[in-house]
């Protein structure tokens, strides 16, 4: 009898001791849940004392669990258990801790099958440190040299697919967090640079130009970029100003329409390109026809124009008129709306365009290379046996493809 009492007493003392360290609720929850791993959660959110799973109805498909984190007194953030389906070698299982104000507190890779020496770098301390402390509160998140204050994680050299897999899952997590914290904005969809289109819209060889992208700063009281106006690039020919390239987005009948306009210093249109759209063939798709885009040459987006000054006309004649496409009113209205928003943005831009500190050098060739690196070769070939860098070719990648022909192998150098 005394032996049984001693065992019970020891067990109670043990429970109380552990409870004093980890919290009583964690002890009993841990007894009923094999999946409860407070130590792992603490690895990605060191300030956390209490970790409690919450139920969210509209949870993203890639997110397994959302853990609410408390410091013992106050709610300070969340831990997200998520799986990226975009890894080079398969799924990448992640734990990510983020504070209520959008600072990444930590990352842990629970499982991955990436290439050793390349994508497998994702679970190293160096990569994790390149993600930790990144500020994602503004909805801006990218991969590059690791400008943490501007939402940039450090990319893995030679492993673009793996980097993008982690990056895209972080975007999913940030979007989810934006529904839980009013201090975090959802991730804005990034507009491509369409670097190859610069060759079409500029009259000379690209090597003769330099490019500077306008960057919004914290000191601005009124934002220039919005859902319509995505990018302003200053173009110089030699040392002299040449033009501005304005990237716009319109909401067409078939979805998003991406436009590029080349403007002079007073915001008259030199040329216009429709670089992406899903409008109806024979109707709204007429926007990419040269007869339509030529109408934009000479269009005046000057700051002195009143807002909503662009007009739709069956027979456009004025310097602020564009064509109303027969049978494509929605598409026509979409283009009109984006141009009117462009005027509003240019009114603000005109006040600060002379401040060179607002511009950052843009290397279009580098952007073009980044686009190539992100190409998914597995989507092009259904019979890929292997995809890896070859020995003594650190900067080259090869795709080895088995064809359905006897004794035939094709090696494509990328």
From TrEMBL:
A Pfam family assignment: FMN_bind
Domain of life: Bacteria
Ranges for domain FMN-binding: 87-177, 252-346
Keyword Phosphoprotein included in the entry's annotation: yes
GO CC terms of this entry: plasma membrane
Molecular-function annotations in GO: electron transfer activity; FMN binding
A Gene Ontology biological process term: electron transport chain
Keywords noted in UniProt: Electron transport, Flavoprotein, FMN, Phosphoprotein, Transport
Protein name per UniProt: FMN-binding protein
